[in-house]
Structures are given as structure tokens and as C-alpha cells.
Specification:
heterodimer; A: mainly alpha; MetI-like fold; globular; B: alpha+beta; Rossmann fold; OB fold (Dihydrolipoamide Acetyltransferase, E2P); 2 domains; 6-stranded mixed β-sheet; 5-stranded antiparallel β-sheet; elongated
Chain lengths: 257, 365
């Protein structure tokens, strides 16, 4: 091995440690028998069992799953439509609309949260799971659109022309040709949107009302009274589920036809 | 009108500021193999897309079997296009690709199966029903694209450079096969190509197109033997040219002289029928009709001019010579390689170029 390669490997290793060491410590301490987080006193599954019996926590999990499912569904319908629609616009107008569409991705998330809060207050909609879901949808539409559009741009436009030529209506051409070819991208986008919604704290923080606590909000409120092993266990589970979903999303997107 | 399949009336199409199709009018007869031949950028593909309905003409009208196609979307036209890139649906099997058009027209399952099988038999792919397009060779994909169009029994099949992506040998096989299939099904084919040999081999009639206009329409023989313009002449392989003027006119021939080359006597050329009024003409000759020899061979050929060999290219099947006749005239000659006993010439050698009256064409200016 030459010098350059040794350097490259060390740098990659340092990078991975930097990213994953804190998470590894978190997961390790979720099995710690001691109530105090800092010292190791042997392994246990106790904290995981405590979690499953915590009613407030289960309610938060339920909220999170409902919000993630509904906002992902809405964002997928809107995002796919947006991507397909954008593709048909002439180049000039497309850049304008695309820029506007991607805005929620580039502005700081805090701004988006504040803006949503102000908007809901202005139109006098009480904060609830509904407003949280709307907030997550706003955040997820551009993500779905970007993923689907990347795939759409690689599709040969002649395939749609061929379908029309063979007697398909524009809708049939979309359903029989475009949609099946977009499916891997759409599944990837769904998993990505679901994960981001499940993990989101900032937008949720601004748009949640009484009784609409999601899992990340619950974790935050538990931390206020000190980092307990239950939180470690909960976080470990969240991290693993999110990683699995993201991994699956990337895997599906990589599939080609 | 009954035997007219497709009629284009005064079509005009702009792409931005450029005129892609320029007042184009054509009549394609029912059941014929019609080719549109022209260099790339001539407006051929645009014309095909106008007939297919993927683009709208800025002016003019398209009639298919006497019915105006104005405002008829592609899916309702009795026309099927074989795309240059084939555009096979990558997520469907060969069978489903071919069945697509019939499904869209809600053909019953049993009839659909038998028609798809018959179409795949015709293109010799009966053993590949369940393959995906990505598992086929280029030639096989081309056949699927053809079957996918034919299975619908359209009034017209449009082919966009159908053999463009195939290698030389496959191309020649497919030319004959495509023509045989067309004769078998009796459907009108309109084929766009920039390959003159392809157009001449396959077609009943050929339209030569350039800069969005049709320059000449006729049988392959008419276009090949009697081009009516220099562009057409060059495009179908008449690449040697010489300007001159007529000195005497006979029944089927005339004699011309040219100030550009030193000739001993005026050249004898077959003349077009009708009165010859113009005096200045352009003589065009095919490189493969010229003979190169050491003497003038007065008994065998009508014409002989002296030249010097400038370049020799050996391609295997033929010898190609670049010959200088004078300071301003450079011609090409292509002689089939007839074996070791054939006379070979070297660069710098003085030779005679010989040909007969009907090896060339004259165009009046």
C-alpha cells in the first residue's frame, strides 16, 4: 500500500468515527444497568421494557406514525404531480416554478416553522396533529419532487410518444409507461419522506398543540429532567429504524429497469 | 383518390426561426414502399413526426386515406411510427410490447394473442416472447419495434431511419427483409433515411429532400438514372462534375466541350428528352462507371480524357483513384477489385479515363 492510500483510509476511518461514535455510545449506554448514565455497571434490557409500558410514550409513537403516514401520502401525491408537471413546462418557466418549489429545502427550517406558526395563527386554525401534518407535508413535497424529477429526466420522452402512437390516451400513457418506470424513485421518495417526518423536531415544535406530542418532542421534554437510560433506549430505537428506512430508500432508488 | 394513402399539402413547419419543412407536398400511394431520402437536417424526421401527429404543421394539411388529420391527436391516427431508437417499453416483455397497441384498442384476449404471435412470427422472434428488451440484440429490438407497429394493421407505417443503428451486414439483410415484409402485409410504408442505397433497394418510389423541400420524386431507377438537379445527382452518387457547353445535338445524345479540361474531341453524352434550349450544361459522372486504362480504348468507349493519378486507396473490394484532369478538375474513380491480373496504377502515372455516353447525366443550368 502506498502512502496516499494509507492517508485516504485513515481519513475515511476518522470520518466514520466522528459521525458514528456518539451514536454507538448512545446505543451502548441504553443497555447500561446503572441509572446514572456516565458509568457502566453491566448490561440489561430493562430500559426497553420500561419504554413499552410508558403510556405517554406510546401515545407519542402513535402520533408520530399517523403524522408520518398522512404527510408522506399527501407529499407523494403533490410531489409526483409537481415533478411530472414541471417536466412539461418550457425551460424558462420551469426554472422559476422549480425554484419556488424547492424553497422549503433551502430556507432554514426554523424560518419555515415560524412561518407556519404565524400562518396558522393568522387564519385562526388551532394547533393540533392536523397542523403538524400540514407542516410536514410542506417540508416533504420538495423532497419527493426532487427525487422523482431526477428519475423523470433520465426517461426517454419517446417512450411516451410511442405509447400515444400505439393508441394510448395521455392518461393511459402515464399510467402504463411513465408511472411503472418511476416506481423505484417513488418508493425511495416515500421512505425518505416518512423517515424525515418521523425524525422531524423543528417544524413539529412550532406547529404542535396540546395533545399532539410526537416522539421527538417527547424525547426533548424527557431530556429536560435529565438524560435517563430510557431516553437512550428510545433514541437507539429511533436511530436504528431511521437508518433502516434510509438504507432501504437508497437501495430501492438504485434499482434500474 | 382511392389509391392515395397519405397526402401532404403545402406543409410548412418552423422550429423556432428555422424553416424545417418548406411548402412540402407529396402523395404516397396505397400499399407502396415510399422513402424520403436526404442528408441529416433536411427535414425528413420532422415530416414524419408531422404525419405521426407529434408536431403540428404551421401551415398546410395532412390527409390519411382521404381524412384530414388536423386536430387529430397521435393516439387516434391510423398511423404507427417505428422510432429510430425503437422506444421499446423497458419494463414490458416482448409480447407485452407488441400487445400494447391492441390492448389500448380493447381487442379480445384470444384475438390479441393470435395477432401478437403472428406478428412475432413474421419478424422471426417467436421464441423470444417473454424476454425483456434489454435482453435482445439491436437487430432483435428493431424487429420488435416493427412488429409492435404492424400488429395494429395501421393504414401507414412510418419508419425513422429504421436501419440506422445496425451494423453494415445486418443492415443489408434487413433491407431485403423489410421490403419482403412490406409486400407481404401490403401496408403503406413511409421510410426516412439518409442512406441512398437503402432507399433505392427497398422503395417503390423515392422522394429526395433537402432544406425542407422535395427536390424530386420517382422510382429508384428514375431518380438514379435521371436526376433533375445537381443536389439530387450528388446525393445519389454522381460526384464527378464538369461544366461545359453544348456544341451539337443529336437524337438521344449531344456533344459538349469544356474549357476546364483539355479534350481532343467533344464529349458524347446521353441527353434528356425534349428540346435542348440552354447552352451551358453541367456534366455529372458516377465514379463506379469510369474506367482507368493506359490507352484511350477508342473502340470500346465513347469518351476518353487524359488524367494523372493523384491518390490510390485500396479498400479490399475495390480500388479507388483520385485523378487530376486539370488544375481545376479532380475526379474520383472506383474500380471493383477483379483480382491479381487487374491493371494497377501508381500515384503520378498518366492514364486515360474512359466512359460511355449513358454513364453520365447532363443538367442544364
Amino acid at each position: 500500500m502506498n502512502r496516499g492510500r494509507i492517508w485516504l483510509r485513515s481519513a475515511s476511518l476518522a470520518n466514520l468515527l466522528f459521525l458514528y461514535l456518539p451514536i454507538a455510545v448512545l446505543i451502548l449506554f441504553s443497555f447500561n444497568a446503572s441509572r446514572l448514565s456516565a458509568t457502566w455497571q453491566g448490561g440489561t434490557f430493562r430500559w426497553y421494557l420500561v419504554l413499552v409500558e410508558d403510556q405517554a410514550l406510546l401515545a407519542a409513537v402513535h402520533n408520530s406514525l399517523v403524522v408520518a403516514a398522512v404527510s408522506t401520502f399527501l407529499a407523494t401525491v403533490l410531489g409526483v404531480s409537481a415533478a411530472v408537471g414541471l417536466e412539461r413546462l418550457p425551460a424558462g418557466r420551469r426554472w422559476t416554478v422549480e425554484g419556488a418549489l424547492l424553497l422549503p429545502l433551502v430556507i432554514p427550517e426554523v424560518m419555515l416553522g415560524v412561518a407556519l406558526l404565524l400562518f396558522f395563527v393568522m387564519i385562526k386554525v388551532p394547533l393540533s396533529l392536523v397542523t403538524v401534518t400540514i407542516g410536514h407535508t410542506v417540508w416533504n413535497v420538495p423532497i419527493v419532487a426532487v427525487i422523482v424529477q431526477a428519475r423523470l429526466q433520465k426517461l426517454d420522452s419517446r417512450l411516451v410518444e410511442a405509447a400515444l402512437d400505439l393508441g394510448a390516451t395521455p392518461w393511459q400513457a402515464f399510467r402504463r409507461v411513465t408511472l411503472p418506470l418511476l416506481t423505484p424513485a417513488i418508493i425511495g421518495a416515500v421512505l425518505m419522506a416518512f423517515t424525515l417526518s418521523l425524525d422531524d423536531f423543528i417544524v413539529t415544535f412550532f406547529t404542535a398543540g396540546p395533545g399532539s406530542t410526537t416522539l421527538p418532542l417527547k424525547v426533548y421534554s424527557m431530556i429536560k429532567s435529565g438524560v435517563s437510560p430510557e431516553i437512550n433506549a428510545l433514541s437507539a430505537m429511533l436511530v436504528l429504524i431511521s437508518m433502516a428506512l434510509i438504507g432501504l430508500s437508497l437501495l430501492v432508488q438504485r434499482q434500474r429497469h | 383518390m382511392a389509391d392515395t394513402s397519405v397526402e401532404l399539402r403545402d406543409l410548412v413547419k418552423y422550429h423556432g426561426a428555422t424553416l424545417a419543412v418548406d411548402h412540402l407536398s407529396l402523395e404516397v400511394r396505397a400499399g407502396e414502399f415510399f422513402s424520403i431520402l436526404g442528408p441529416s437536417g433536411a427535414g425528413k424526421t420532422t415530416t414524419l413526426r408531422l404525419v405521426g401527429g407529434f408536431e403540428r404543421p404551421d401551415r398546410g394539411e395532412i390527409l390519411v386515406e382521404g381524412r384530414s388529420m388536423q386536430n387529430v391527436p397521435p393516439n387516434l391516427r391510423p398511423v404507427n411510427l417505428v422510432f429510430q431508437t425503437y422506444a421499446l417499453f423497458p419494463h414490458m416483455t416482448v409480447f407485452n410490447n407488441v400487445a400494447f397497441g391492441l390492448e389500448m384498442r380493447r381487442i379480445r384476449r384470444a384475438e390479441l394473442r393470435s395477432r401478437v404471435s403472428a406478428a412475432l412470427d413474421m419478424v422471426k422472434l417467436s421464441d423470444k416472447h417473454s424476454r425483456l428488451p434489454s435482453q435482445l440484440s439491436g437487430g432483435e429490438q428493431q424487429r420488435v419495434a416493427l412488429a409492435r407497429a404492424l400488429v395494429n394493421r395501421p393504414a401507414v407505417v412510418l419508419l425513422d431511419e429504421p436501419l440506422g443503428a445496425l451494423d453494415q451486414q445486418l443492415r443489408q439483410e434487413m433491407q431485403l427483409e423489410l421490403k419482403a415484409i412490406q409486400k407481404q402485409v401490403g401496408i403503406t410504408f413511409i421510410c426516412v433515411t439518409h442512406h441512398q442505397e437503402e432507399a433505392l433497394t427497398m422503395s417503390d418510389r423515392v422522394a429526395v429532400m433537402n432544406h425542407g423541400r422535395v427536390l424530386q420524386v420517382g422510382s429508384p431507377q428514375e431518380v438514379y438514372e435521371s436526376p433533375t438537379s445537381e443536389v439530387v445527382a450528388r446525393f445519389i452518387g454522381l460526384s464527378n462534375h464538369l461544366s461545359g457547353r453544348i456544341v451539337t445535338v443529336g437524337g438521344t445524345t449531344c456533344r459538349i466541350t469544356s474549357p476546364d479540361i483539355p479534350t481532343t474531341q467533344p464529349l458524347l453524352v446521353r441527353r434528356p428528352p425534349g428540346p435542348m434550349e440552354a447552352n451551358r450544361v453541367m456534366l455529372l459522372l458516377r465514379p463506379e462507371r469510369l474506367h482507368v486504362s493506359q490507352d484511350a480504348q477508342a473502340g470500346r468507349f465513347d469518351n476518353a480524357v487524359s488524367a494523372r493519378i493523384e491518390k490510390v486507396t485500396y479498400t479490399g473490394s475495390e480500388m479507388q483513384y483520385l485523378l487530376r484532369l486539370s488544375d481545376s478538375v479532380l475526379w474520383r474513380a472506383r474500380l471493383p477489385n477483379s483480382g491479381a491480373r487487374q491493371e494497377r496504377f501508381r500515384v503520378g502515372e498518366a492514364v486515360f479515363l474512359c466512359w460511355n455516353a449513358d454513364d453520365g447525366v447532363i443538367l442544364t443550368e
